[in-house]
Amino acid sequence: MTLDQFIAAHNGQRLDFDGKFGAQCVDLIDYYCRDVLGIPIIWANAIDWWGGDASFEGWTRNVWGDRNSKPPRGSIIVWGPNARAGTGIYGHIAIGVDPGEGLSFGSFDQNYPTGSACHVQRHTFDGVIGWGIRLAPPPPPDPCAQVKADLAAAQQIVHGQDAKLASYAAWIATRPQ
């Protein structure tokens, strides 16, 4: 599923991935990780996602005032507690959809403002800790690796035998008849 398909499928919905605390911002991210990114879900509060498992996310700290510091489309954006942003002690988390111009950006949110369904929301950088992007997965293992290794070993043996045969032929050529 692409990000656009994900937004189209869930816009206006209230998602509750774990079925425990109602439709929270983290529930949206859990679905996004499973359905779009194909990465493990971190069972944590929004703020605890920041810098999570480095094996699947490349994390970038927000540089306050740097207009070139922008969350890329598809990134997971994490807020800390911030009165201006309206985020409490558990922070907030959303999906970047528009990196913006350096003063504001667009994201796909749930429960921001509190109680809201999934929707595209404009934000300033108030309270944003940073964002994570999915790193490229490692290349799949070569299914022919063992065959290639066996072939290389066999070629070495053949080339070694060729050298022995050439040496033997040279010796025979030098023997008196």
Topology readout:
Layout (H helix, E strand, L loop, with lengths): L2 H8 L14 H13 L19 E5 L14 E4 L12 E7 L5 E6 L9 E6 L3 E7 L10 H30 L3
Give a written overview of the molecule.
It contains three helices and six strands; from the N terminus they run ααββββββα. The protein has two domains: 3-134, Alpha-Beta Complex (endopeptidase fold (from Nostoc punctiforme)), CATH 3.90.1720; 139-177. A six-stranded antiparallel β-sheet has the order 1-6-2-3-4-5, covered by helices on one side. By secondary structure, the chain is an alpha+beta fold. A hairpin with a 5-residue loop joins strand 3 (92-98) and strand 4 (104-109).
Structural class by secondary-structure content:
alpha+beta
Please report which band the strand proportion falls in: under 5%, 5-15%, 15-25%, 25-35%, 35-45% or over 45%. Answer: 15-25%
Strand order within the widest beta sheet: 1-6-2-3-4-5
Number of helices: 3
CATH architecture descriptor name of the largest domain: Alpha-Beta Complex
Instruction: Report the biggest beta sheet as strand number plus sense, adding barrel if it closes.
Output: 6 strands, antiparallel
Write down the Rg: 28 Å
- In CATH, the homologous superfamily of the largest domain goes by the name endopeptidase domain like (from Nostoc punctiforme)
Q: How far do the termini sit from each other?
A: 79 Å
Percent helix among the residues? Answer: 25-40%
Taken in chain order, the helices and strands follow as HHEEEEEEH
Unreliable stretches (pLDDT < 50, length at least 5) are: none
List the domain count as a whole number.
2
What is the averaged pLDDT score? Answer: 89
Under CATH at level 1, the class of the largest domain stands as Alpha Beta
Judging from the principal axes of the Cα atoms, what is the shape? elongated
Strand segment tally? 6
